[in-house]
Amino acid sequence: MVKNICEKYIIGPECIERLLPLIEAGPLSNLGVTGAGVSDLRGEYRINRPHSRISGVIGTLKGHGRLKSEEGTRILSPGDLMIFPMSKPHCYEIINGKFWKIVWFTIHRPIPFESIRIVPSDQLTTLAAEYTAIIEEAATGGYLSQEVRLAKENYLACLLRRILHTECIPGKDRHYQQQLRQLWSDVMKDLSHKWTLDELAERAGFSTVHLNRICRRYYQCPVMRYITRLRMTYAAQLLAQGNFIKVETIAHRCGYDNPFAFSVAFKRHFGQSPRLSQIEG
After folding, report:
1. Strand order of the sheet with strand 8-11?
2. Which range, of 21-30, 110-119, 199-208, averages the lowest pLDDT?
């Protein structure tokens, strides 16, 4: 998938990147963080790294991005957290010049992952809010006391450790996330099945109310909407292969008997029709 990738950074004029001012020798620097920020991306944006010399974390807040790596092509949706270790070739980009808002860290040291991972996170909104408060304070010439600034960066460092070291996740949270990951794995094995909330709750071992509650906590949406996200992500991966598979076939594989209903759902999710997405690859 990325054998012939060449190093390239394309950041178009419509992209706005707001960088987090780091404390010299502060908590984030001590973790190896060399950069962090919030980015509003439009138009042209693509980062190609054939031999990455940094590790990093990218969280999707709004819109959609696309990751290409040795594991294949993945769509990055709101709530998704991408973690990439050093030396793993990858490319990530905005989809068809639409809109993609991300929060990110770059880390100049190895992290405890052997491959690129995409995991759900309920920390992204908090990260973005903390980033934005510090960035805006600096941009307006405001002054934070050293104690307050240090406390804020300590908090961000704690969030980053929690992201990178799963053993820091409280036991109940870890259990819920494991149960949800297993549930989504079961769903992905048969996306053509007409899944119902009752069936999913029974499979996960939760009541329907509790399943929706923890899904909103970790994915910022109810269960059936997340199932739609899984269907649309899989559809986008199939469409990215070109015209080898008919849209009608993809619709059926994603659980839609009616291709028109599938097209409406896909356009609502990605902002363009499946056929146009297939043409643009």
Report:
1. 8-11, 45-49, 90-94, 65-69, 72-76
2. 110-119
pLDDT higher than threshold 70 for residue 279: no
Tell me the DSSP string of 85-114.
-TT--EEEEESTT-EEEEEEEEESS--S-S
- Strands of the sheet containing 99-107, edge to edge, are 16-19, 33-42, 99-107, 55-63, 80-84, 117-120
Provide the greatest CA pair distance for the chain.
60
Task: Quote the CA–CA distance of 204 and 226 in Å, as a whole number.
Answer: 15
User: Which domains are seen in the chain, by residue range?
Assistant: 8-168 (2.60.120.10), 171-280 (1.10.10.60)
Q: What average pLDDT does this structure show over 50-70?
A: 89
Residue 41 in 3-state DSSP?
A: strand
Pairing of strands 90-94, 45-49: antiparallel
Residue 172 pLDDT greater than 70, yes or no:
no
Q: Give 229-270 as a 3 state SS string.
A: HHHHHHHHHHHCCCCCCCHHHHHHHCCCCCHHHHHHHHHHHH
Length of the chain: 281
